Amino acid sequence: MASMVFIHFGLANEESDQEMHDRVQLRSVTTATGFKQTIKDAPASISVVPKEEILTRPIRDLGDAVQNVPGVDASATKTGDTSISMRGLSSDYVLILIDGKRQNVNSGFHSNGFNGFMSGMIPPTSMIERIEVLRGPVSVVWGSDAMGGVINIITKKNPNKLTTNIMLETRIQEHNTNWQSDAQDRKYGSFGNMWGINAYLATPIVKDKLSLSVRGKYQDSGANLFFIPSSITPRNNNPYTTHSPTGYSAWTLGARLNYSPSAKNNFYLDGEFMNRVSGTLNTSSSNITAFNTNTKTNVILNHDGNYDWGKTTTYLQYMNIRRIPHASDVVVGADSGILNWRSMRENQNYVFDSKFHKKIFFDTAGLLAINGGVYYMYETYKNYADTRGLLTQHQAAAYAEGEYTFNEYVSTSLGLRYNYSNIYSGTPNPRFYVNVNPTSWWTIKAGIANGMKIPSITELGNGFLYQSTTTAYYGNPNLQAEKSWNYELSTIFDVNPGFLH
């Protein structure tokens, strides 16, 4: 059990009941197609975690935020981080976005159960506007890794007035006094407390033209001390059970400069650095205490255009993710070790993405919404303990989708994406959906969608991949993309004050 303390204060405007009613009834999403539309019109099964829920719960990581969404499973890893799976597919098949920008690390980046750290690398909760969760494949829009689903964290836009939020939170564990103790009077289990602070500040510099926002957060958690019973002889003099997290410390700093030269054009430059240290008191095989330091550097230059001939979103992104293990001679039960730079893993992504959206009205004959885009990513990966050296991959894709609304009762969408890589064959991804609205408050959706996941750059590299305690892994350049088909029939009841589906 845990007692939770949560404090939030800042400069903000109160929302009237009518404004809240309008916001709920007209709630829109962007993740299903890349552009804004209402939930009931989106060609996917989608849920939204609103900011009201985020701000009234102590959110440690992304898993805490989405754990109550149907079809989502958030489970703790041996380091205490959260691994998110959707519709039975593991975290390697769930694409995480922030404002539509890819955040996933190469799936070959992980080994020996040290996955899940990306769940903790999210913006401060005071900056999050909402979280959109799509269940099922959305590869036609987002490409690889979107086979199980997509989680898109939407952040606040820079306002035209000074805005600030500061949040303090703590999670104080209530230990069960009925748990049996051993001869040394140690409880067989106790959970570590957690505390944190995060802040967001935005201010205009030139009215309606130039604005700046800064954000930051810090979190610290104690270890979960799960001792083996005294009747069992510990291996390697390690008294802890497996999956006993060491606790973690994490901090984030970021800033965004927003420039709007005209009503039709908006630019922003966003930079962020994250650092997270976590580990396990007892690995499952070696029976040692192990730590990793994970860092993420993310820089984005984005342009949004709103023209008579259509809307566009184009961006350049650079992302660098590092995993630096601590030396293997960490003292059992310690809270840190010495960084082992010779075993560092580094994944770098260079991304160009451009999307286009246009609505064409045919008077009484309906409405056609056209979405399309191109995507390119140059990816590098290096394991400094791997003799294969630097691994590289080029990926490119183009997609188009049309959504035709016949009338207020029926709409349909059809889309196709083609993916190319220089080291595996091309892969198409189609999607077809039909939405029927018998009434203004009832929607029926039926569709079929294809998902895919390309082999990771490490899995495609020829030769030795990595060595776990008991198994050696090797790459295979002849691997092909994994594919899935999703057949869906769902319904939504849009009834005040919210959605039931």
TrEMBL record:
Residues 244-495 form the TonB-dependent receptor-like beta-barrel domain. GO terms for molecular function: siderophore uptake transmembrane transporter activity. Its main location: membrane. It is a multi-pass membrane protein. InterPro entries: Beta-barrel_TonB, Beta-barrel_TonB_sf, Plug_dom, Plug_dom_sf, TonB-dep_rcpt-like. GO terms for biological process: siderophore transmembrane transport. It is found in: Cell outer membrane. The keyword Membrane applies. This is Ferric enterobactin uptake receptor. It comes from Helicobacter equorum.
